[in-house]
Amino acid sequence: MLPCASGNKTDDERRRSMNSDVGDGMFSNISASLKKAARIILWVGVVSSVIIGSVYMIMGSIYKGGMGLTGLVAMAGGILGSCISSLTMYGFGELVEKVTEIAKNTAKNGSSSPAVPRLEYENRLQTLQSLRQRNLITEEEFRIKWEELQRGI
The whole model's pTM is what? Predict the structure, then answer.
């Protein structure tokens, strides 16, 4: 890793220090906070939609106006809106959780770059086999390069 412009810290060290500055509280496990907020939004939205819709429907029956249909539409629309918004927020919480998990696994492996992609690996292996078949490299050189390729170098 190359040192960053602000001091002698590498990118990984800087990321670790930023993550450790978060501390306790709402942001220590943001994915769980997002999921909890999504559940709260769902239930508050559903309950308030039912209450508001019921009030409109009762007012419509008392005053003989067209508010009964308005109450039904308000109830259905509110419930639908609450479901959509809470599902979106819950999905974002899942996304944050998975990204955090990937970042932790990457940090454990000590690597920030993925392994050699499969197609590139196969191309290198074919080239290596071709060089060996044409006797352009020795068996020992082939074995060493093959082992490096297996390790992802």
Answer: 0.51
Distance CA 150, CA 87 (A): 43
Domain boundaries defined on the chain: 30-111, 115-153
Q: Under a CB-based contact definition with an 8 Å cutoff, are residues 91 and 128 in contact?
A: no
Question: Using one digit for the tens of pLDDT, what is the confidence trace for 50-68?
Answer: 999 999 888 888 887 777 7
138: which DSSP letter?
A: -
Instruction: State pLDDT tens for residues 109-138.
Output: 655 455 557 778 888 888 989 888 998 889
Burial of 15 (0-12, 13-18, 19+ CB in 10 A): middle
Q: Measured between alpha carbons, how far is 12 from 138 in angstroms, rounded to an integer?
A: 40
Q: Which residues of 121-135 are buried (b: 16+ CB within 10 A; e: fewer)?
A: eeeeeeebeeebeee
- What are the phi and psi torsion angles at 138 (to 5°)? -80, 170
**Stretch (H or E) spanning 27:** none
* Angstrom distance (rounded) from CA 24 to CA 75: 39
